[in-house]
Amino acid sequence: MKRLALHWQILIALVISIPLGLFFGKDGVIDLTGLMSFFGSLFLNALKMIVVPLIVAAIITGISNIGSEKGFARLGFKTIVYYLFTSLIAILTGLILVNIFKPGIVGGIPASDILALAPLSADKIDKISGYESREIYNIFLRMVPPNVFKAAADGQMLGLITFSLIFGYFIRRLNQNYKTVQLNFWNGIYDIMIDITDLVMRFAPLGVLGLVALTVSETGFDAIVPLLKFAAIVLIGLAIHLFVSTSLMLYTVGRIRPSLHLKTMFKALLTAFSTSSSSATLPETIEGVTKAGVSKKVSSFVLPLGATVNMDGTALYECVAAMFIAQAYGLDLSFGMQLTVVLIALLTSIGVAGIPSASLVAIVIILKAIGLPETAIGLILVVDRPLDMCRTAINVWSDSCGAAIIAATEGEKLYVENG
């Protein structure tokens, strides 16, 4: 018998978690909050367990696999610039929207009580609120850790990401014998971590069941309003990125009509939406850009790399989620702290695995970096699955736009007439 797809399992868990939280909470027929907390904590621990090896392996393989032969160096430079630029635009779009509409504020007050968030100590609140713009240089200091292994043990991912980027770059400069050994090693580690991440995500329904039921048992239906507002802001941001930011780049840089490209890529976007996996959608993405006239040289290089390192929708979501939780705690984050969120969202989006809900790993990193409890991630699990479907479609859309734009700058003739 065919196993039920993961997204259906998660949706069923969401549906079950609501009556479970209402009838078996602290004031219910039987108090099962301890069991709910156990499954939720177990899932969060599993996510934190895979953070370091997954992010490190993903970044190292993504950078080191860039071709170094003539022509590919130029192609690689264009690809990395495009991916970093579009991810940054996506993050800033989310940051602007979340600062304007403030989903974590309900009726003029922080939604921490409504969302039943674990309280922060006064010292922690003072530390986070006192993070001034003049301390921005500390962000850059943390990007160069004195001890990489200690940084990994302490969960200081900013320095670890920087080290991984540099490490991946210098693998490319090794002689062929050593380079082959290193590439095989890190590609193997990455494949293993993808399998482990996939294993952890198979237990996501239990984690969702525990975390959401626990939230419902403590808040009832009061949490729905801020969560729907949060989801709406994410969707608006994703729509802006699709119809404005990347479409504008298609038209101005690639001289490509966005509506025609959208029509060509529709099948791939539908696959991405239904599977929530940019990696699983890769064959459809390649087929779509090939129909657009993109050469095999460009598509076979840009798209596999994009499925690993280009996660515009995910980066936007990470930023909005972290800011939403900070607002719910009543924290007015300074420019310096928001810059930290932007940088970490940008860097962690490079290492997010192209499988369903893997961005939860990156959100855990961001929350830890700005001093917020990782358990707060339980809030967004209620709306994570539908948003995951939408942001994955945006990830794939951006990849396809990148392939088309880079092909156009390489002088390839695509299917669109100028203007």
Average of the residue pLDDT scores = 80
The shape, in one word, is globular
Largest sheet: number of strands, sense, barrel closure: 2 strands, antiparallel
Question: What is the spatial order of strands in the main beta sheet?
Answer: 1-2
**Do you know the CATH topology?**
Proton glutamate symport protein
Name of the top-level CATH class: Mainly Alpha
Instruction: Work out the helicity level.
Output: over 70%
Name the beta content range.
Answer: under 5%
When the domains are counted, the total is: 1
What's the order of the H and E elements?
Answer: HHHEEHHHHHHHHHHHHHHH
Instruction: State the end-to-end CA separation.
Output: 53 Å
Compact overview of the structure:
The chain is mostly helical. Helices cover 72% and strands 1% of the residues.
Could you describe the 3D structure shown?
The chain has a single domain (6-409), classed as Orthogonal Bundle (Proton glutamate symport protein). It is 72% helix and 1% strand. The mean pLDDT is 80. It contains 18 helices and 2 strands.
Key terms:
globular; 419 residues; two-stranded antiparallel ribbon; mainly alpha
Fold topology:
Blueprint lengths: L5 H18 L9 H32 L7 H30 L3 E2 L2 E2 L11 H8 L7 H6 L5 H6 L3 H15 L4 H27 L1 H16 L4 H29 L5 H7 L1 H10 L6 H10 L4 H14 L2 H17 L6 H16 L8 H11 L11 H29 L10
Antiparallel strand pairs: 1-2
